[in-house]
Design a protein that fits this description.
- There is one protein chain.
- By secondary structure, the protein is an alpha+beta fold.
- The protein folds into two domains: about 50-455 and about 610-630, no CATH class; about 475-585, no CATH class.
- It is built from 26 helices and eleven strands.
- The protein has helices at about 25-45, 80-90, 95-120, 125-135, 140-150, 155-175, 200-225, 230-245, 250-260, 260-270, 280-285, 295-300, 320-335, 335-340, 345-370, 370-385, 400-420, 430-445, 450-455, 465-470, 500-505, 525-535, 540-545, 565-570, 595-625, 625-630; strands at about 50-55, 55-60, 455-460, 475-480, 485, 495, 515, 520, 550-555, 575, 580-585.
- The strands form four sheets. It has a four-stranded mixed beta sheet, with helices on both faces.
- Helix 1 crosses helix 3 and helix 7 (about 200-225) packs antiparallel against helix 8 (about 230-245).
């Protein structure tokens, strides 16, 4: 960290002492408070009683530790350890409240993390920190992912600035040799936590060095776990850490990442779902999309371009998207030069790494939407296990946001300096910061209040809880109508993911097939497809039982194909029926799970516990003795 400014010229950081953010804890907490206010403004309507049910987002009062929740289902473990965490927490807290709390915390952490990243890499004043926090929360990427229902992905998004700082601390403590590194007394600002080494003797310095290094690794483990609520978030944080930490620490970081990603890695290995090739049609279906007035590259530069044109704020569906993107680019471009050139070597290296990550995160998805990029993607998903995680390339634009926020903050400072040089009497920093804060809000007005009201709670009919209580025997659950998406009267106009897998205490068979842009992308659920076919053909109950099906649930109020399933249902035992739902029991012996399933569940649970240890242990250890080792203000 740079020493407090005393009025001398430090390159582009030539400012007065009043511009610096050395005003103590009160001023440092203002960005956190501002970030929380913005987060609450975004999710506002969702805070009312009820549950989030919007496209891919499903929250329920209670969920269960089924095989699918642990990543052991037929499909690839895309919601692991998210579903396992909800199954555990919803036994003591309403699951809907958990999802709301995680979403608010993710947006809060994203803004606060951007402010802290700006403060520690630029020694920025309060105004530029608020600029960074605003841009981290208020941008098209956040809006589109909220509309798509990717609430848990935003935890990985929020972890990126904190992951970058943790990786930089590791690099600063160990240096390029991989050994504990004592800071230069002449340039303590070149090392994070340099005051930790200012003890009276060498033993104290070495102990503090070991302690600081341990806290840095523990902090990284914790942020890996936060980001790893979904596999994609885990990949995002892993990429940032590997690029920032330095080549001497890469193996350690990769090993730590594997430990924190254990739930979905173990689930994919045991279930085999992640090892199967993905449908190549998904590469085209999930490719980044051009917005009005912008090509694909321009949309991605503006942090937009999600594949689903329906999951886009209204302001991004007209030519105004071009105006908003140009303004955002100007905001970011105003600080690129300063970010790349200014500061001490350690923080300059970090900032340049973030710039490189941002450039790649924008260019690669744009290339992936070209003809040859699609061909490469199709080759990857059909031949490389797990490559299906890469098909929604626009997700990875999240990697550009840390650099965007730092550049916008630096641009705010640079413009303020230029304004003050021309008009010394003007309080430039507050004025320019107010403009820079207002720009994202004005150019994306419909992110406010639940992205234009789309993010609102729903209420499940009481029959769902009665059905869950009625399922008291072995066997998986087949669901009618066929398909994974529903349009319930209580869920609104858009199609939503079937909530049955999270509402019911037994595994619900799902094919994983996704309707995207007028085509169907095949999933990995081969057994579910067989069962759907049997029901559509009116098969005998014994054929269902032979495939492990013990229950059939009919969701009456949603459209979808039923085929000749009435023939099968007439041969089943009715256990519950109302205006919304009907539950049937499949008679006869149900084919039990294999003998290895108990072992697989034990391994999956152990992997989840390891992840939880990273999450909790990282938080506790990284904050231990913080009071004694906090930097000394000079």
């Amino acid at each position: 960290m740079l020493p407090p400014h005393t009025g001398r010229h430090v390159g582009w950081l030539s400012v007065t002492a009043g511009d610096r953010d050395d005003g103590g804890p009160r001023r440092q907490w203002l960005p956190a408070a501002w970030s929380l206010a913005l987060a609450l403004l975004v999710v506002g309507p969702l805070l009312a009683p009820g549950y989030l049910l919007l496209r891919d987002a499903v929250s329920t009062p209670r969920s269960y530790p089924t095989d699918a929740a642990l990543g052991l289902g037929d499909a690839a473990p895309r919601a692991v350890p998210q579903d396992g965490l909800l199954a555990a927490l919803s036994t003591v807290v309403d699951g809907g409240l958990v999802v709301k709390a995680v979403l608010v915390a993710a947006l809060w952490a994203a803004g606060w993390g951007a402010a802290v990243l700006t403060r520690r890499t630029l020694c920025a004043a309060l105004g530029p920190q608020l600029v960074a926090a605003t841009l981290a929360i208020w941008n098209p990427y956040v809006a589109e992912r909220l509309l798509q229902g990717h609430w848990s992905l935003l935890t990985g998004y929020a972890a990126l600035p904190w992951t970058a700082l943790a990786a930089q601390r590791i690099r600063a403590h160990t240096g390029t040799t991989g050994r504990f590194r004592r800071p230069s007394r002449q340039h303590p600002e070149r090392h994070y936590g340099s005051s930790e080494f200012s003890g009276p003797n060498h033993q104290t310095q070495q102990a503090d060095s070991i302690s600081g290094t341990g806290r840095a690794w523990a902090g990284l483990a914790g942020w890996f776990a936060v980001a790893g609520l979904t596999p994609t978030g885990s990949l995002l944080a892993g990429i940032v850490a590997v690029v920032v930490v330095g080549r001497r620490n890469v193996l350690g970081v990769v090993g730590l990442w594997v430990v924190a990603a254990a739930p979905w890695l173990v689930g994919a290995g045991l279930s085999g779902g992640g090892a199967e090739p993905s449908d190549p049609a998904g590469v085209v279906a999930f490719a980044a999309r051009a917005e009005p007035g912008l090509g694909t590259l321009g949309s991605l530069v503006g942090l937009g371009g999600i594949w689903n044109g329906d999951a886009v704020p209204a302001s991004r569906t007209t030519g105004f998207a071009l105006v908003a993107t140009v303004v955002l680019v100007l905001l970011v471009a105003s600080g690129v030069r300063a970010v790349a050139a200014a500061g001490d070597p350690g923080t300059r290296r970090l900032r340049r790494a973030l710039l490189v990550i941002a450039a790649v995160a924008v260019v690669m998805p744009a290339l992936g939407a070209t003809g040859w990029g699609v061909a490469v993607g199709e080759w990857l998903v059909t031949r490389v296990p797990g490559a299906g995680l890469l098909r929604d390339t626009q997700k990875y634009v999240a990697l550009a946001v840390p650099a965007y926020t730092v550049c916008a903050a630096a641009g705010c400072r640079a413009v303020a300096v230029a304004v003050r040089n021309r008009a010394p009497a003007v309080e430039a920093v507050p004025l320019v910061a107010a403009v820079f804060v207002a720009v994202p809000l004005v150019t994306l007005p419909d992110l406010a209040w639940g992205v234009g009201g789309a993010l609102r709670p729903v209420h499940y009919p009481a029959g769902w809880q009665r059905v869950a209580a009625a399922i008291d025997g072995p066997g998986d659950v087949a669901v009618l109508p066929a398909g994974m998406f529903r349009r319930f009267p209580f869920s609104g106009r858009v199609a939503v993911l079937d909530p049955a897998p999270r509402l019911l205490p037994r595994d619900v068979l799902q094919t994983g097939e996704l309707p995207v842009r007028g085509r169907v992308v095949a999933g990995e659920g081969g057994r579910a497809r067989d069962v759907e076919r049997l029901l559509a053909n009116g098969a005998a109950p014994g054929e269902l039982a032979a495939r492990g099906v013990g229950w059939v649930l009919v969701e009456k109020t949603t459209p979808g194909p039923l085929g000749a399933s009435e023939t099968t249902l007439a041969q089943l035992d009715s256990r519950y029926a109302d205006a919304d739902l009907a539950l049937y029991r499949v008679p006869g012996p149900i084919d039990p799970h294999g003998p290895s399933d108990a072992t697989h569940r034990a391994l999956a649970i152990a992997a989840h516990l390891v992840w939880a240890l990273c999450l909790l242990g990282g938080a506790v250890w990284s904050t231990a003795r913080r009071a004694r080792t906090s930097p000394v203000r000079r």
